């Protein structure tokens, strides 16, 4: 079998009419090509010689739908200045900067790939973890420590706390040794800044709890005095405190860019700077690209005095064409101005709060009426739906 290049093959086809004495239409039928292609390649052969028979790019000369050059430059500049930002965060920053229209996340990703700013990664099969989220800020905090290295190679610890509902970084305390006293120092400072949570969850480290049958450690005694209920994760199951584990990963990426710190004092300054960036500047994917500070501050906060547990996790619903949503077998009016938009419904101990899922704006606060009632915009409790009058 003789192997032929593309140009040799086309040269054989173009010479076939004169060589075999057959018309062009018969040549096209024999080789399975169109007459338009035959004449196009013949024109290229006469104009450019055999070099004109080489395959050419099919990319169009113009791409009217391609992202504008100034927008691409802005995306590239933001990525270069912030190498840890992905396409979702970059799109949120473009939107916050007032760009209109805002390119889609997929468009931003293609721009990054086009400029070689995306590192290829292996496709990972997502694990089907069972996710949970507390309904109100301060209903549950997570606490744990993570270890980092200083300039001289010595080790230091950071005791971190994060709010389960808003992913808000409650506190970060840099210490040399991770003891029960260090854990409580971080907890005490966080309580002074943000109030006491209703519950606190940690792993089974001896900093947080005593062994079975032994006297409670310092940390347990202090929690009990404040009325905070202590929970512990299952042994060898870090996913229970997964939000804090993911926070540690994000901090260590930041520390790799800005560290290592020469002392505990400088490490504490880095922790404080990162907390501000994480809480107030960095959009969070699980919060619909809102910042943790925005979500933490818009809702009523739980406390150890709350005797009634939160009933369920927040729900995100789409507003119908009538301007309402169906929640717990009740129809709640939100307003036709929000038709087709997503709202986040938070059910607290006493009332229900409806937020706009995108902006975090509080749209309604109400007390649920009986099942099957309609909650209009003017009533605190629901009223029975209208029933047709029998004729």
Overview features:
391 residues; alpha/beta; Arc Repressor Mutant, subunit A; Nucleotidyltransferase, domain 5; 11 helices; 16% strand; Homeodomain-like_sf; nucleic acid binding; Integrase_cat-core
Offer a concise description of the structure.
This protein starts with 5 loop residues before the first helix and ends in a 16-residue tail after the last strand.
Characterise this structure.
It comes from Arthrobacter oryzae. This is IS481 family transposase. InterPro entries: Homeodomain-like_sf, Integrase_cat-core, IS481-like_transpos, RNaseH-like_sf, RNaseH_sf, WH-like_DNA-bd_sf. Residues 133-300 form the Integrase catalytic domain. GO terms for molecular function: nucleic acid binding. With 391 residues, this protein is an alpha/beta fold. Mean pLDDT is 85; it is low at 379-385. It is 35% helix and 16% strand. Helix 1 (6-20) packs across helix 3 and helix 5 packs across helix 6 (105-114). It folds into four domains: 6-53; 69-114, Arc Repressor Mutant, subunit A, CATH 1.10.10; 140-287, Nucleotidyltransferase, domain 5, CATH 3.30.420; 310-375, no CATH class. Strand 9 and strand 10 (352-356) form a beta hairpin. It has helices spanning 6-20, 24-31, 35-48, 69-81, 87-96, 105-114, 180-194, 218-226, 242-258, 264-281, 292-298; strands at residues 140-149, 155-163, 169-175, 199-202, 229-232, 315-318, 324-327, 330-333, 342-347, 352-356, 362-366, 374-375.
């Amino acid at each position: 079998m003789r192997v032929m290049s593309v140009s040799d093959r086309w040269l054989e086809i173009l010479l076939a009419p004169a060589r075999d004495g057959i018309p062009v239409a018969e040549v096209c039928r024999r080789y399975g090509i169109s007459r338009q292609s035959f004449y196009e390649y013949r024109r290229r052969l006469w104009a450019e010689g055999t070099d004109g028979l080489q395959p050419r790019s099919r990319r169009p000369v113009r791409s009217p739908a391609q992202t504008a050059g100034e927008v691409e430059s802005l995306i590239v500049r933001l990525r270069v200045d912030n190498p840890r930002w992905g396409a979702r965060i970059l799109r949120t920053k473009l939107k916050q900067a007032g760009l209109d229209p805002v390119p889609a996340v997929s468009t931003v990703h293609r721009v990054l790939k086009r400029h070689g700013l995306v590192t290829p990664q292996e496709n990972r099969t997502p694990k089907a973890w069972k996710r949970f989220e507390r309904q109100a800020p301060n209903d549950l905090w997570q606490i744990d420590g993570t270890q980092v290295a200083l300039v001289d190679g010595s080790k230091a610890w950071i005791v971190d706390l994060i709010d389960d509902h808003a992913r808000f970084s409650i506190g970060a305390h840099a210490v040399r040794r991770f003891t029960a006293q260090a854990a409580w120092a971080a907890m005490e400072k966080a309580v002074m800044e943000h109030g006491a949570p209703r519950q606190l969850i940690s792993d089974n480290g001896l900093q947080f709890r005593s062994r079975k049958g032994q006297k409670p450690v310092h940390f347990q005694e202090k929690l009990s005095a404040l009325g905070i209920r202590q929970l512990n994760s299952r042994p060898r199951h870090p996913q229970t405190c997964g939000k804090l584990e993911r926070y540690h990963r994000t901090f260590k990426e930041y520390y790799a860019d800005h560290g290592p710190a020469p002392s505990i004092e400088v490490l504490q300054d880095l922790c404080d700077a990162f907390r501000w960036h994480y809480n107030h500047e960095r959009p969070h994917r699980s919060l619909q690209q809102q910042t943790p500070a925005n979500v933490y501050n818009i809702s009523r906060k739980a406390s150890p005095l709350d005797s009634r547990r939160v009933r369920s996790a927040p729900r995100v619903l789409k507003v119908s064409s009538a301007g309402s949503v169906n929640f717990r077998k009740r129809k709640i009016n939100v307003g036709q101005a929000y038709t087709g938009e997503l709202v986040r419904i938070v059910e607290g101990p006493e009332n229900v709060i409806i937020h706009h899922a995108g902006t975090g704006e509080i749209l309604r606060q109400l007390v649920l009426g009986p099942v099957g009632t309609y909650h209009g915009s003017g009533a605190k409790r629901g009223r029975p739906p209208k029933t047709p009058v029998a004729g």
